[in-house]
Amino acid sequence: MKIGVMGHGPIVEKCLDAISKVSGSQAIAIYNRPVSAKEGEAIAKKFHLEKCYTDFEKFLKDDTIDTVYIALPNSLHYDYALKILNAGKNAIVEKPFTSTVKETEHLVQIAKEKRKFLFEAITTCHLPNMKALKEHMKEIGELSVVQTNFSQYSSRYDAFKNGETPNIFNPEFSGGALMDINVYNIHFIVGLFGEPESVSYFPKKAENGIDTSGIAILQYPNFACSAVAAKDSESKGFAYVQGKDGTLKINSHVSRCEELIITIGQTSKTINLQESDNHLVYEFESFTKVVNEQDYDTCYKWLEHTRSVMKVLEKARKFAGILFPADQQ
Amino acid sequence: MKIGVMGHGPIVEKCLDAISKVSGSQAIAIYNRPVSAKEGEAIAKKFHLEKCYTDFEKFLKDDTIDTVYIALPNSLHYDYALKILNAGKNAIVEKPFTSTVKETEHLVQIAKEKRKFLFEAITTCHLPNMKALKEHMKEIGELSVVQTNFSQYSSRYDAFKNGETPNIFNPEFSGGALMDINVYNIHFIVGLFGEPESVSYFPKKAENGIDTSGIAILQYPNFACSAVAAKDSESKGFAYVQGKDGTLKINSHVSRCEELIITIGQTSKTINLQESDNHLVYEFESFTKVVNEQDYDTCYKWLEHTRSVMKVLEKARKFAGILFPADQQ
User: Which domains does chain A possess?
Assistant: First the structure.
C-alpha cells in the first residue's frame, strides 16, 4: 500500500509512525491546504515522506499513491472520500466515518462500483485484546449489563469555555463528544453484539447545542449497554461486561484495550496480546493485509459494521436533538 | 430508643448487631409469624432479646417498645408501618421504603398527624464517607457525568432461574433489582443532586416481568447520571463523579461507601471516616440521636428525601413497564 495522508494533527503523526512499523505499507506523500503548508512540511521532513502537496488536484493525480488516509475535520470526511474514490484510489477515513448514515451508504456504494477499498480508521475493532474479549464472551454466561467509559479532557475545552469554537465543539463540523470519542465505545459494543434494538442519548450540551459529554444507552433484546464519554472531564477509561457467571473487564479506554481481565467466580486472569506501544499499528496491519490480498469481502464486512455504528450515532444524535448541516442534505 | 424488630432475614441480624453498638438504643423484642417462630427464637437467643412474639396484636400492644424496625418483604412495608404508627409507635422501614409514592405520602402524613418518628433504613445517606463526598463536591468543578454500579449476584437467582419465584424476584412482593439494590444508587444520586428532571430505566426483564438488572438514567439540567444494578451478575461496585477539574470515586458499593478517592489533576487523596465494620451502625446512630433529641425537623427532612427517591423509583418502573399490585390501589 502506497499511502498519501491528508491533515496535520497529532493523529497524522501517530498514524505515520504506525505505517512505518507495518511491512507492506509505506507513506509517501502528505497533503495540506496552503494555510497549513508549514505543518505539512515539518511532518514530511520528520517522517521522510517523498512528497509534500498543497495543491489537492495534483495530490489526487499522483499515480504513485494508491491509498489516501483522511484525517480532516469530521464534516469533510464524506466530500474528500468521495473525491478520492472517484479518482480511483482507496480511502482510509478517520473516525467518525461520516456525518450521517446516508453519506456512509453513498461512499460504500461508490467504493463497490469503483472496486476500491474503503476503511474506517478506528483502533478498537482491530486490537488483538478486543478479539480476545470476543472469544471469551461465552465464558461469562448470559449477559446482564455492559458499561463503558472513555473520558478525556480536551485540550480545546478551555478555549471553548472562553468563547472560541474549535471544530471539535462545533456542530458545523460534525463535532461533539458522541462523534469524537463515544464512537469508540459504540464500536466496541456494536462489535460485540451487533446493531441494538434501540438507542437513547443523554448528553451535557453547551449553548451552541454540541454535546461535551454524555451517556448513550444501547438496548438489546435482553440486556442494555451504557456508553459514557466526555471531553469536558477526565476519567480512567474502562469497559465492563457482566454476565451470569463472570465478568470481562478492559482496564483502559476501549480505543486501546490495554488489558483484558477475565473473572469467573473467585478466579481472575489477565490477558494482553498487544506488544506495540502504538495501538494504531493493528488497524494498519489489517488494512494492509486486506489490500495486498485484494480481500474485498472482509473490507465490505467491516463497512457493514461501520454502517451499523453510524446508525447508532445518528439515532443517538436525533434522540438528543443534536443536528448537523449534513442532516439537511 | 427501645426497639422491636419484625422479620428474620440476614439484615435483621446485621441490624441487631448495629443497635447493640449504638448507645441510647436497645433492641428488646422480635416478632415473626408463627410459621417462622423458630427463626425468631434463635435470633432472640443470639442477641439476648427479652421478648419473642408470634402474635402481632400482642407485639403491637407492648408498651415497652417505642420503635419498630420493619424488615419484611417490600410489599408489606406500607401496611405494617401504618399499623405501627397508628398504634402510637415510631417506625423504621427497610429500603425500599414502600411500593409507591402514594403509600410513602400517606405514611408521612400519618406520622406527622400522630407526631411519631418515621425513618427509611438506608445506609447510604448516613455514612460519614458519603457526607465527606458531598463536602468535596465543589472541588471537582462543573459536573459532567456520574456513574454508579451496585451488582450483587443474588443467592436466590439460581432458584428463580429454576422456576421458583422468591419474593425478591416477584412483582407481587414489589421485588426486582431496581427496588432492592438500585435504590442505593438512587439514594446516592438524589442525596447529592436532589430530584432529577427526568428518569429513564433500561432493565433486563425476566418472563414474569421483573427486572433482574438494569440501567437507570437520572437527568439533571446540565448533566446525567447512570445507576446500574444487578442481582443476576456480580461486579466490583463503584460510584464515579466526573467534574471539569477532577473526579470523586467511591471504591465500593454505595451501600457501604468504603473509601472516597478525590483526584484533582494528577493528585489523588483517599479519605475514610468509617471505622465500624458494620455499616448499619451509622444509620442507627442517626435515628437514635433524632429520636432522643425529639428532632422532628430532621426526621421530616429525611422523609422528603425518601419521597424524592420513591418518585424516581416509580418513574423508572413506569418508564420500563414494571407494575406492582400496589400501583392499582
Answer: 2-119+292-308 (3.40.50.720), 125-281 (3.30.360.10)
